[in-house]
Write a structure and sequence with these properties.
The chain has 155 residues and is of the alpha/beta class. The chain contains six helices and five strands. A three-stranded parallel beta sheet has the order 2-1-3. Strands 4-5 form a two-stranded antiparallel ribbon. Helix 5 packs across helix 6. It is globular and about 45 Å long. The model has no long low-confidence stretch (mean pLDDT 91).
C-alpha cells in the first residue's frame, strides 16, 4: 500500500472484501489486495433487490413494516437481519481465532451486523445504526470480547 489514501488506513495482516462489485472496486481503488469473503456479502433482499424503498412501501407496506421491526422477518424471500447477523458473527469468530488485524471492505448492512453482533446488541438495533460511505468502523477483540472504537481521528 502506498499513497495518501493508504496513510489514512490502518495497517493489517489480512485484507478482505465483500463479493459485491462495489466493494471489490472500492478495495482496488484503495490499493488493497483483498480476498473476497462470501460471508461478508450484503443482506440478501430476495425479491426486493433493485427496488427503491418507496416502491416497496407502495407494493408491500405490511411486509416492509414487518421487515423493519422484526429481525427474523424476510418477507422478500431473502435473508433476515438475524440470519445476516449470524453469518457475520461466524466470520468475526474466525477472525478472532486467527488473530491479527484484518481490514475488510463491506456494505453498510454488514457493518451494522458486525457491530450488533460484536457488542451483543439485540438485532432490533440493526436499523438504528447509520453507516456513512467510505468510513472506518474499528472493532477490536481482546480478552474474549469485542470492543467498538468510537471517535478515531480521520488523519
Amino acid at each position: 500500500m502506498t499513497g495518501p489514501v493508504h496513510a489514512a488506513l490502518p495497517g493489517a495482516l489480512r485484507y478482505a472484501t465483500a463479493p459485491s462489485q462495489r466493494c471489490r472496486t472500492t478495495a482496488r481503488a484503495l490499493g488493497l489486495d483483498a480476498a473476497p469473503a462470501p460471508e461478508l456479502a450484503d443482506l440478501d433482499l430476495g425479491d426486493w433487490r433493485g427496488r427503491t424503498l418507496g416502491r416497496i412501501a407502495a407494493d408491500a407496506p405490511a411486509g416492509l413494516a414487518a421487515w423493519l421491526t422484526d429481525p427474523d422477518a424476510a418477507p422478500h424471500g431473502g435473508e433476515s437481519v438475524t440470519a445476516l447477523c449470524e453469518r457475520v458473527s461466524h466470520w468475526l469468530a474466525g477472525q478472532a481465532a486467527t488473530g491479527g488485524r484484518v481490514l475488510a471492505v463491506v456494505d453498510p448492512a454488514v457493518v451494522r451486523a458486525a457491530t450488533v453482533t460484536a457488542l451483543g446488541l439485540p438485532p432490533t438495533t440493526f436499523w438504528r445504526l447509520d453507516v456513512r460511505p467510505l468510513t472506518l468502523t474499528h472493532l477490536t477483540h481482546h480478552n474474549h470480547r469485542w470492543n467498538l472504537l468510537l471517535g478515531a481521528p480521520t488523519t
